[in-house]
Amino acid sequence: MDNTTRLLMMGAAGAANPTYVEDVFSTYLYTGNGSTQTITNGIDLSGKGGLVWLKNRNGTSYGNVNHCLHDSARGVTQSLASNNSSQQFDQTTGGVTAFNASGFSLGSYPVNNDNGYAYASWTFRKQPKFFDVVTYTGTGSNRTIAHNLGSVPGSIIVKRTDTTADWAVYHRSLANTQYLVLNTTAAAATGATWWNSTTPTSSVFSVGTDASVNASGGTYVAYVFAHDAGGFGDSGNDSVVSCGTMTSAAPVNLGWEPQWVLLKTINTTSQWVLLDTMRGFDSSNSPASLYANLTNAEAVAGTGWSINSTGFSGVAAGTYIYIAIRRGPMKTPTVGTSVFNAVTYTGTGTNSRVFTGAGFPVDAAIIIDRPHGNGYPAFIDRVRGGGNYLVTVNTLAESTGGYNYASRLDSMDGYTGGTNDSGSLNQTGLALVNHYFRRAPGFFDVVAYTGTGSYPLTVNHNLGVTPELIITKTRTGSADSWYTYAKPLTSPNANWYQNYVALNQTASTASDTFSITTAPSSTTIIYAAYYSASSVTYVNYLFATCPGVSKVGSYTGTGTTLQINCGFTAGARFVMIKRTDSTGDWYVWDTARGIVSGNDSYLLLNSTAAEVTNTDYIDPLSSGFEISSTAPAAINANGGSFIYLAVA
Length: 648
What we know:
- By secondary structure, the chain is mainly β.
- Among the domains are: 108 residues; 102 residues; 100 residues, no CATH class; 98 residues, no CATH class.
- The protein contains seven helices and 50 strands.
- Strand 12 and strand 13 form a beta hairpin.
- 55% of the residues are buried.
- About 1% of the residues have low confidence.
């Protein structure tokens, strides 16, 4: 499926008002200010209702503190703690103070908003086939409770609110006589009086006589999660939540990439592990973990959980149940500013600097020091883990010295610099530019995978359309070039995916019949032996033409002024050009450094040469960009062949 077809489908579905995961779920990280603040995460809580779950990540001024759960059914100020059995309490002194049309507001209560401390928030909006919040009063007799999920629940979490009681957890992977307790490490237990030995239906769930779920006169709240129920995306058939079982560390195939997972062993004692991709749930097997049953601060350790394009995996033995939520955004972008930005900076010499200005959560960045010398052009991304970087000017394997680059992509607007980068990419007075990218259907995706030693090897991606620009780099093992495949490439082979140029080289197009074996599709790339070495890790950066947002294209040089129509309305803000029929550098321009009618500063991705500021090789054009008559042969040779990537 190409992006034009995709947009037509979206238009056809418009009358049905398609819903996407970004409409109903958000992980939002914030720093406390000790006063009041509004969290704008795009989730309509005032109109739709839902749950906000908050947790301090690094302790407060007086130590580790509780999780805080607030929902629209009980009242915004009423708080519960998943880590204990206490009854709800009223945070009128300044906890969550309001549910808004696009998020929620916080008061000064230090558990949720202590000045200078880091917090995570997870917001779940009520929506059929995703999540529901139900309150009820117990009867002491077996009974059913109505819900509005519109599908059979995959998991139900119940808490008594008027007095002390454990959190009861139902999960579809257990027998209907079994339960788990969210605030303890206990393995699954058997008790027919919890769920009345009855499996939920698409309209009700059952409770027995146990006081934790149904004491006479007791008040309760239930958080109800769907399972593989569809209802989302352009077609309305995509699922965004799954409740399943993982056994003996076997990979979980969800059919999509998760962004949030809650998991627990059922056959042994263990913690309730909370993972999300904003804090650092990636392919590195070292996620940033919080625990739903503990007050502990966030820990980053080799706990063995990692994501992939279709699910997640672990290394620990045992049988786990999980609740997993799909990664967003699911909606194809319509404006470039939602998925790309370029921001210039001057180094301050401070460690762990927070770099901001993207305007969205950053999934990948190209970091370039403009004098070139202290730090080469480097790729970082959320999928590999922020501290792991790859340098575009050479063939070196991935470096894990995050102190020189980004330690974590845990900002809603950029990334956090390394803990010892004052003499590197944040040297005092150093000029640099960050090119920020967000993964989004039809525009850009990042895929990390490990070779199996067998081939052909099918690698899944979530671009949603056929990639038109594939940048592939070996992360471990022998040093290797940045092999780059572009759909506009022509000879020497008839198949574009068997022709390449190397991002770290000036060489012209060459033949490559040993890497990609067949034409990529909207879901997969099939690799041959060269990209399937046993235990070797790889990364793919995938781009496509997204109408009004990005363009992967080609042109033939004229030696005179040449206008490149990308289908934009306000011009290109990022342009990358490479000559393919002869030698030529990889030129990069952006509007942060200037795409103007006069001189335009350019950098080279394949070279350590300093930024050039005194040339006028490209000019603004509302539909794309213009190449000037003064441009050299590497950009506009008469009869020369060129490829480009432009972002509006």
